[in-house]
Each structure stands twice: as C-alpha cells, then as structure tokens.
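Researcher: Good morning. I'm working through a list of sequences from a screen, and I'd like to move beyond sequence-only analysis. For each chain I'm collecting a predicted structure so we can compare shapes side by side. This is the next one on the list. No need for commentary yet; just the structure.
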Amino acid sequence: MGFIWNEFLIKPILNVMLFLYNVLPGHDLGLAIIVVTIIVRLIVLPLSLKSSRAQRRLKTLTPQLNELKEKHKGDQQALAKAQMEFYKQNGVSPLGSCLPVLIQLPVLFALYRVLRDMITKIDPVLVYGFIHLPEKINAVAFGFLDLSKPEKYIMPILAGGLQYILGVMTMPINKSKNAGPEGAINKQMIYMMPLMTVFLAISIPAGLTLYWVATTLLSILQQVYVNHEKRKEVTVRIKKAGDHEEIVVEEIEEKKPIQIEAGQEKNDESKETI
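Model: Good morning. Structure tokens for this chain:
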C-alpha cells in the first residue's frame, strides 16, 4: 500500500510541483499549487460535471420528493422504495455528487505530505531524474503568504465564504412545511460546512488552505456554467415532402420530473407478487 501511495500520488504530485516551481515566474510555490489544482480539476472534470448536473437535477426534484415523503409518512420502507423508483425513473442518483469529492481526498492528503517535504527537506529518491531539485524552496507565496504555517485570518475566512457560496448553489433546499428532518439537516449543513472549513483552515498550513480555496472557486465557476446550460433537448425528425426529404429540428423543453402515481405503485407490487 505504501508503494502505491508513493509511486502513484506522492511522487507525481511532488515532481509536478517541483517542475512548476522551477518554471513559473518568481519561483512562486503558491502559483504552483494553483496550477496543480487546475490540473487535478481537469482530470476529474467529466465526473464533476456529471455530479454538478445531478445536483441541479436533484434541486428541481425537491418538491416531488416532498410529496412522496408526505404520501408515505410513517412508512419508511415504502418511502425508501418509492424514492429509489423515483430516482431511477428520473435518471438521477443521490450519491452521484460524492465521487469527485472522494477522488480529491487522497490528493489532498498527498498534497499535505508534499508540502511538508518541500518546505522541510525533499528526499532525492522521490525526485525524477529529469526534474531539477532546488537547494531551497521558498515557502512564501505572492510575496506575503507563508504556506508552511497556518494563516488565521484572510485565508480561513475566504475558504469559509467560498464554501458557503458553493453550498447555497448546490444544496437542495426544501421550503415545504413537509420537508421533514432531511430539509432541516440540509439547511444546517449550509452553515456547518463553512464553519468547519474555517476552523480546519486555522489549524493547517496555508498551502493546503490555498488548494482548498482554489478548488472551491473552480467548483463555483463550474456550477455557474452547469446552471446556465441550455435545458433543452433537440430531436431530429425526417419528414417526407414529395420526392424530397427534409430534416426538421424541434426544440423540446427539458423533461419534467416523472411522478409515481399510486396506481402505478400497486401495479408494480402486483407484478412482483406474480
């Protein structure tokens, strides 16, 4: 496990950081971290775009989910079954947004190790032969930010503020009176996550906080793009007109959420019984 960790995470990230540190203007470690963040985001972009679209779709389905909760109030088993069928028919997964975050966690831990080694002493064994190893790494980014130590004011507030903006953009909000405990938890998480981010940023090196700020900002920009995507589907129909064929393009508004009717549920249950 240690071999895989070093060969596939520590060494690549360390060498990319060293390469960027050597070639970027001013040998700025902060710029190197931002570029590494962009590279990581590009790698997970297909998954994160899919996740963002799923979150947008889930937000539009919130009223219908509330109706299901009210309909199956007191019967958790029936509610769970109805929700799974509802998610399936509408082509969404409530867990789809977790994968990009889970992928980035090992990168975050590896980056912590890389920053620690770059600021203290780099093991030459981890450096590729074609990468220049500087005698000393300057941990001060942008001329004022020491990435080796926690920054207790600007960076934590910035990280928490961006986390709050992202939470508001992505978290499903149940405004219905029947939202239940799940709606209350979602509202609490919008405020809890930024607070947790601030307290964490106060205690970790500013280099990691810079990575978190950069990746959160990119997530916000990505969510803005997804939210403004054209919500239309285009179908192509071939229509005969005499001896000629012409292609008629029709624009259709985004599909409305598919609701499960009571009769349909009974039919499904009867089919299972048969």
